[in-house]
Recover the amino acids of this structure.
């Protein structure tokens, strides 16, 4: 160590110089690293700092019923309040607690929501406003606007929200909207959704989401550190585009009639015009109010609806499958007629019991010798067991395929179930056993492995009504561009979904037999009306409980114009007998449509002779607070309904139309 | 020597001035002024006339600083060094006054009012006084490190301004004092054993607050061994255990004492002692925000919008400048206010953003040249007092440059140290220019003094 007299040690100075050099080298290297190596990353971070892209929400199309005037889904203005965490007084400040209390009391915002948002400040930019509460009443907004100073950090903005003015009436058709789920966001990355997107979750809102949502615009704001906007611009091709308005095929009056009739029951009904494929009414009971998703619902009441054993969220028309029961005999008959069985000639004997293999298959009664006309009217199982085993299951399966069972109907509602048509191959794959005659017998009366939706049965009866053709069933009538008012899409000309390869006479025969079901057959009491309807009852056995009550029908029976014929299919879950329970309600709906009578009166009239002790029926009365011993009194303006059976000739003279 | 003689010397020896040094400083002052303008020209308080604006004030400061620099280059520095303790006590009184009646800015008292709204920062001038004190001590004492009692007395004196500055609180300036002190002592021949002990204690004292800040910020961490740094009871048991171990070692024979295990134990002892002290005096040593700053230097993302904000924003500011920069007055981070304290602590980021890598590298290069010239001047000085003063000044500049630019670049903690010649502010500029004058003073007398 060489130390100059009390001066600096030279060797130690060298160390200090080396340290100095290292410090400068490290500064230089870090500068190089930040500006050259990682420059792009920091440049992007700087852009994120000063630019914020604000989405310009697009107009979401509204939905109308078929008259094009009545809105069933509309946008109404609404206000949301936002919280800017940096604007709120700090936690230590004496203003913190009073401000929090004032906001909690006067704006009715949950205290924990605010505290949570303030806590999240560490991860978020505290100078930006974050959504605090939606759907704020206008009065509250006025109050905020008048004295903004007393609500530090609070701001508000107008945002349209969705409104379903008819509540539960159209909920299974329209569906509802909600904030996008993360699963759906990641699945549809190319559709322009983002974290805050509001999308249709069910129904038409889901099906036509892309068409209705339009395109969101984008606005870029250049802000300073305190989030004050310096200037803003709209980038090229980022203007917002409005979505399309939709006009549906649904008829408001028919829909209301169905709802009036079905409320208080568990079931579903769909009414279509098979000639055009328009769905005129679609209702599943019980229903739910879609507005709860918009207004925000607490978890408890949501769970209450969700865990309801009657499943209000389930659309029983398309999303539930049932065994068709006796109404499947229409298809079996069609198969038989196609394969040369005689309509009036060939008879089978019904003794009430049939032995197939080693198993006894029962009939409802002992009908004696039956031809097809009688068997259909009486819903004689024995006839169909014997005839089907004679004919072979293959023919029935082929005919089912022709009626497009086991396939989706491609209706414009999401989550449709295809149902199931069993086949020899299907059974051996599923159960490892062979098809035997007992399976054929079960299939012939619509039981066993067969499953279908209410909509499929509607298309089936529609095909019979419309001489073998049902157009693809649809809800969308027109799509309207909002700005110009021009029609973008119409679905007036649709492809048939069922087109039967049957002789015209065979269809006429089936129609005749369906008319007899109503006039003298199983539905003669349940469908007691002067209206010329033709239909078929069904009671589908199931392991869950009592049989489901089915009724499919169409009216007017003898209409000259095919476009006037409407088809109806109705199911009442665990209703028991189709003729006893389902038919009166279906008839009441039909009378309501054609005679414009009150369907409740119709039901009361038809059930006059009825055992009102029936559980389904007494529930229905209780729901309407009607005394079970109420006697029907005919109204003055109601048409004369006392002539119990109207002849076909008299009907031809007066053409009934479902709606004007 | 009389003052007139000094003046004549100055005239005669004008050619002895170190031109590269002066060019460096002039360039740096010029860059500083224009970027202080860039950083402040659209600030919120921009309503007064141009004569009262910050950039204009900086020019006034600069002119006054130039005069001070010339003044410092002609004063009899040896005489001042001999009576450095007078200056020292005056400055200490000023520091005490600051602590009592200073102007409070951001929870710390660093400034005192001269007239109406003109403030000065005594701790800046204290650096120079400290350099004089230490240089005087090292050059005048016969053998400064042998006489233990005078060494202790010296340390006691030096620790007064450090404590006063820490109490302001101003960790950065206190660190500058410590850096000056130890580098001067080191170059003055402080034995390595002392040095080792100081480094050990120092690193322990630094580590504990950082760990504590980490524990307090990340409550969720599940590391048992970190408990010992935040729980006093554990720390006391730990210290007791090491003390007992020490007693055990002391009872053993010389073999143990002469081996590495003894050294390790010594460190353990110091460490545990430091731990206990740090835990008990935790509140007095470092404020919460200082701990957070120290910690956010290590992991800025944990507290992004609070204590980590400065670190992240300065890195973004520098990085987004890229190679050519965004252009003068065109920077987004600085002009839109994302960068805090841009005319003072983060002026380097403003330069790096607007002048890019080219400009920032030039600034670092100028500083490098400046420090290099100071080392050259120190080496060619024949006079041990002058040599020590120049080295003290060099270390002061080096430390400030590194800590400031380093904190801009994210490689040093945020301590609020000014960047010499560039940062806006009178006191720091005058201290820097006074130091420069002193260096020139010593340099031009390199042939006359022995």
């Amino acid at each position: 160590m060489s130390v100059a007299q009390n001066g600096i040690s030279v060797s130690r100075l060298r160390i200090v110089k080396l340290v100095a050099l290292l410090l400068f080298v490290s500064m230089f290297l870090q500068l190089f690293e930040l500006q050259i190596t990682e420059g792009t990353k920091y440049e992007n971070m700087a852009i994120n700092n000063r630019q914020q892209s604000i989405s310009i929400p697009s107009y979401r199309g509204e939905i109308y019923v078929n008259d094009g005037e009545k809105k069933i889904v509309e946008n109404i203005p609404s206000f949301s309040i936002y919280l800017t965490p940096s604007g709120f007084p700090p936690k230590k400040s004496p203003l913190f607690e009073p401000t929090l209390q004032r906001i909690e009391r006067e704006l009715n915002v949950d205290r924990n929501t605010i505290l949570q948002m303030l806590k999240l400040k560490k991860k978020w930019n505290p100078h930006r406003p974050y959504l605090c509460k939606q759907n704020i009443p206008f009065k509250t907004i006025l109050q905020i606007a008048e004295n903004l100073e007393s609500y530090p950090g609070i701001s508000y903005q107008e945002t349209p929200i969705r409104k379903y003015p008819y509540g539960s009436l159209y909920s299974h058709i329209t569906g509802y909207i909600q904030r996008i789920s993360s699963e759906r966001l990641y699945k549809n990355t190319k559709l322009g959704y983002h974290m805050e997107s509001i999308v249709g979750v069910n129904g038409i809102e889901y099906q036509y989401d892309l068409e209705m949502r339009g395109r969101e615009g984008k606005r870029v704001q250049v802000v300073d550190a305190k989030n004050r906007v310096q200037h803003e611009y709209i980038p090229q091709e980022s203007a917002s585009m409005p979505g399309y308005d939709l006009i549906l095929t649904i008829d408001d009056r028919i829909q209301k009639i169905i709802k009036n009739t079905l409320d208080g029951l568990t079931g579903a009904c769909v009414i279509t015009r098979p000639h055009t494929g328009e769905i005129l009414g679609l209702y599943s009971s019980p229903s739910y109010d879609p507005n709860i998703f918009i207004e925000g619902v607490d978890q408890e009441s949501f769970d209450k609806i969700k865990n309801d054993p009657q499943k209000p969220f389930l659309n029983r028309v398309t999303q539930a499958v049932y065994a068709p029961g006796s109404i499947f005999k229409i298809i079996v008959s069609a198969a038989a007629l196609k394969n040369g069985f005689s309509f009036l000639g060939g008879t089978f004997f019904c003794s009430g019991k049939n032995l197939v293999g080693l198993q006894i298959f029962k009939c409802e009664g002992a009908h004696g010798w039956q031809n097809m006309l009688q068997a259909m009217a009486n819903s004689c199982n024995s006839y169909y067991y014997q005839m089907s085993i004679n004919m072979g299951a293959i023919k029935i399966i082929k005919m089912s395929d022709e009626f497009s069972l086991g396939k989706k109907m491609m209706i414009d509602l999401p989550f449709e179930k295809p149902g199931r048509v069993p086949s020899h191959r299907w059974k051996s794959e599923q159960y490892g056993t062979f098809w035997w005659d007992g399976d054929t017998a079960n299939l012939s009366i619509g039981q066993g492995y067969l499953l279908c939706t209410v909509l499929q049965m509607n298309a089936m009866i529609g095909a019979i009504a419309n001489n073998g053709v049902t157009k693809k069933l649809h809800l969308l009538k027109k799509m309207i561009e909002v700005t110009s008012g021009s029609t973008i899409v119409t679905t007036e000309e649709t492809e048939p979904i069922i087109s039967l390869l049957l002789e015209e006479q065979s269809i006429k025969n089936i129609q005749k037999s369906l008319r007899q079901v109503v006039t003298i057959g199983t539905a003669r009491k349940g469908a007691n009306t002067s209206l010329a309807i033709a239909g078929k009852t069904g009671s589908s056995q199931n392991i869950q409980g009592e049989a489901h009550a089915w009724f499919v029908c169409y009216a007017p029976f003898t209409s000259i114009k095919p476009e006037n014929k409407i088809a109806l299919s109705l199911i009442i879950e665990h209703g028991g007998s189709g003729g006893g329970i389902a038919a009166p309600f279906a008839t009441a709906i039909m009378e309501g449509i054609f005679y414009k009578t009150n369907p409740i009166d119709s039901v009361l009239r038809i059930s006059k002779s009825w055992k009102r002790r029936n559980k389904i029926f007494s529930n229905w009365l209780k729901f309407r607070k009607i005394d079970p011993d109420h006697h029907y009194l005919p109204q003055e303006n109601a048409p004369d309904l006392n002539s119990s059976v109207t002849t076909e000739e008299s009907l031809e003279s007066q053409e009934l139309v479902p709606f004007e | 020597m009389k003052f007139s003689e000094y003046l004549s010397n100055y005239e005669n020896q004008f050619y002895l001035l170190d031109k590269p040094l002066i060019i460096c400083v002039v360039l740096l002052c010029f860059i500083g002024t224009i970027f202080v303008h860039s950083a402040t020209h659209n600030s919120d308080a921009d309503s007064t006339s141009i004569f009262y604006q910050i950039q204009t004030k900086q020019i006034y400061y600069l002119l006054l600083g130039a005069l001070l620099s010339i003044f410092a280059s002609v004063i009899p520095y040896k005489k001042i060094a001999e009576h450095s303790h007078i200056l020292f006590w005056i400055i200490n009184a000023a520091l005490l006054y600051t602590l009592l009646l200073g102007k409070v800015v951001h929870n710390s008292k660093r400034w005192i009012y001269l007239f109406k709204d003109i403030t000065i920062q005594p701790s800046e001038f204290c650096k120079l006084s400290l350099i004089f004190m230490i240089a005087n001590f090292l050059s005048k004492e016969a053998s400064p490190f042998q006489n233990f009692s005078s060494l202790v007395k010296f340390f006691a004196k030096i620790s007064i301004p450090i404590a006063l500055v820490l109490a302001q609180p101003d960790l950065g300036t206190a660190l500058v004092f410590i850096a000056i002190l130890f580098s001067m002592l080191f170059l003055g021949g402080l034995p390595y054993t002392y040095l080792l002990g100081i480094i050990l204690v120092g690193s322990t004292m630094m580590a504990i607050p950082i760990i504590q800040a980490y524990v307090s910020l990340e409550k969720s961490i599940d590391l048992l061994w970190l408990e010992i740094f935040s729980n006093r009871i554990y720390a006391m048991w730990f210290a007791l255990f090491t003390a007992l171990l020490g007693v055990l070692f002391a009872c053993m024979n010389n073999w143990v004492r002469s081996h590495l295990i003894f050294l390790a134990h010594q460190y353990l002892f110091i460490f545990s002692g430091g731990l206990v002290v740090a835990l008990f005096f935790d509140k007095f040593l470092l404020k919460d925000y200082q701990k957070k700053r120290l910690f956010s230097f290590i992991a800025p993302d944990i507290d992004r919008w609070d204590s980590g904000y400065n670190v992240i924003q300065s890195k973004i500011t520098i990085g987004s400048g890229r190679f050519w920069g965004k252009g003068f007055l065109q920077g987004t981070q600085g002009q839109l206010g994302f960068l805090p304290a841009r005319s003072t602590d983060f002026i380097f980021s403003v330069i790096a953003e607007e002048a890019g890598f080219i400009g920032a590298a030039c600034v670092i290069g100028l500083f490098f040249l400046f420090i290099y010239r100071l080392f050259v001047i120190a080496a060619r000085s024949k006079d041990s007092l002058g040599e020590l003063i120049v080295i003290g000044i060099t270390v002061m500049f080096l430390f400030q440059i590194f800590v400031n630019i380093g904190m801009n670049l994210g490689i040093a903690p945020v301590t609020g140290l000014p960047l010499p010649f560039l940062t806006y502010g009178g006191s720091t500029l005058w201290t820097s220019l006074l130091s420069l004058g002193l260096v020139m003073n010593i340099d031009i007398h390199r042939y006359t003094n022995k």
User: Anything to note?
Assistant: The two ends of chain A are 115 Å apart (CA to CA).
